[in-house]
Predict the structure of Heme biosynthesis protein HemY.
Amino acid sequence: MRKLVLLIVAGLAVGALFGHLMMSVPGYWLIRVGDSSIQTSFWFGLVLLFAAFIVLHFVLRLLSGIIRPMGRFRSWNSRARNRRAMQRTVRGLVALTEGRWKKAEKTLVNAADDSSTPLVNYLSAALAAHYQGHHVKSQEHLNQAQLTTDGADTAVGLMQAQMMIERQQPEEALAILNRLDKKLSNHPQVLKLLKQVHLSVNDWEGLRRLIPRLAAQKLITQQEREQLEFKAYRELIVFEAQNPTNIERVRGLWADMPDYLRGNTELIVLYSEALIQANEEPIAERLLNHSLDHHWDARLVKRYGLLNVDAARQLVKAEKWLQERPNDPELLLACGRLSLRIGQWQKALEYFEASQRQRPNGEVCRACAPLCQHGRA
């Protein structure tokens, strides 16, 4: 009741204020169009404008109510089509997982236009076509995938590279991966596939340069890194050492090699052989001396005994080692060879016999052959 009274009082007050304004602010509206004109009081014209605004507002709302159902229907229809497309996409992905390639490809392609993820549809369809051996069709799906989604270059390129690897086309895969690597430095999947391709084509130089990046991204364990580095440097040294004129290249590989690998016996032997073939036996001698002082190995001892540098000096060094290892058969054989080289026949024979006692070996007999010839002489 109180609110009603207040509303009545407020209405009377507004009416009185409005009446006072009408009396104190006279004026009129004059609208002239051609030879015709319309004239009315200022306040009546103001009321007409307000009424026209109210009418226009309700007309616009009415039109909006008529148009909106059509928009709602289109939106509903789009969502329904998308739901159906997603259901077909799921069925296609399931068929792909189950190995039903033909059905998977057809289902995924048919659902692509209405799917909210056409990139997934076309990439999966490309994979299904690839597994069927339809390589041209597979490429068409990849091209379509690239057109449907901005920024799909990486995904499409990775899929292409993987397919090329499976088709035994590593050179094509390498070209794609190198392009992606320039664009996306240190992308994990690109680096993994690069490693796979380098190994498949025996590209040891490429693998050697890739290993630090794989390790930095933690894509290989420390053990795997050491295995890959050993294999890469071993194969590169073997390859370059085939031509003695490539000795500088071999030197560079040895200099670039991680410190732990320069203590590897097999690599030391390979490097020594390369130096010897390039007529750099003094360097090979220093290498073997240093290696044997820090890491004793029968293969290094054998290589040391076969060197032809300064046999007398070498024998002095070998006999120092012999004081620490008097029963080492390989060292005794090496001392025999060095003694033979400087013409100490009796000492050579003693060393050969001692080596044979420690480990009977046909190699000792072959090393003794010059002694037999000397005896006959």
Summary: The longest strand covers residues 28-33. The radius of gyration is 46 Å. The mean pLDDT is 83.
